[in-house]
């Protein structure tokens, strides 16, 4: 046992020395110069150790000279480099790609504007893609969709930097109401877009087809694939018969990818985007005015809305928007100041119209000017506020509470056209009063009393003239009915128009119109 331990120690020392020093060629099999161990025996087998002839050296890291480059494990400081490392989609090499490369490369100002705009949002998108193990090329898709403008709206009503249609947005839980549109929300729309793209990739098993479906609709892509299969044709993205916009869609993304990969080849300079978060998500627990957030965080309101583009009112409803985005450093400033803030946070709240009324009547009830009520709620001219409509109003003694969740998530501005009324003179019948006359013409008794400066309970005489405010069509009908026909011939004509034979065609037309 005493002879074995030194032997093991020598073997271990020799192995460590071999790792630390310059590699030594192993002796050839059968060599007469094979070293002798301290026990007097030759070591046998292919892994026999070579004993050092001199003192042991310290362990060191070998520095390679020449040979292939070694991949670095350090995180890139440039977000563009991080995106390049994550490229994973197969490349397209077509004339359409080269056409789009030339288009973008010939517009350096356009590239500069949209890449600078993207610097606020790109880090978050890349983080989400990596978390889901998705190709980083998809971080470039908003360049194609909206030039990274979260307020972009297409002619087909698609909105946001990911360009969601209203119905598609609803299917991915993007709320759209009078207080906010989550299709423009940076976090919510990115989550929905990546969910949708993953869903499409799972269905088609190909990223190019998934992108075509994102642009054209999965039903259309599926029908195009089925048509090619029926005709014995291939079913790749390049083989399908698609609209022009969709045929250019993936080539556009490929062109942007190529420019990002090697901007110098296209004489393009990309703005520096650091590989770190631009914004932080900050919780809010009470309704708060946008102006108050801007003041407490030292952020310009325009910059705040660029990070929170889904918010379209001067107040943030905490029940519907429990988090806001602020530039990274400003987020900490805001939270510190909010903790010590005294005084009201919000000067606005929501109010539900109890009945259909004019904006002027609503404003008078809410102690606001009609102009301000129309402006803050986007009420166009010649429109009435319908019963059940939600309006944004000033807080006062009667309306002072935070907006509840069901209102913050589902509030709608309900409007109906304002009917232009015409002053019309009518005559009371025998035994008629204000209420029965009002019922006969489809107006309220209080309105009849107001228009004629009489009481609702005032008796009416047969043939008494009263003024009513009626829609033009009804006023014209009343005027014709009250005009006396001239002579016997006129009387006969009037009688004929009241016979049952003449009433039937009218009823038939009404049924057709109803269908």
TrEMBL record:
PROSITE patterns, sorted: LYSM, PROKAR_LIPOPROTEIN, TRANSGLYCOSYLASE
Key words of the record: Signal
Biased composition (Basic residues): 493-503
Superkingdom in the source lineage: Bacteria
CDD domains for this protein: LysM, MltD-like
Keyword Signal: yes
Domain LysM: from-to ranges: 424-468
Family membership: Belongs to the transglycosylase Slt family.
Name listed for the protein in its UniProt record: Transglycosylase SLT domain-containing protein
The organism of origin for this protein: Hydrogenophaga defluvii
Organism placement in taxonomy: Bacteria, Pseudomonadati, Pseudomonadota, Betaproteobacteria, Burkholderiales
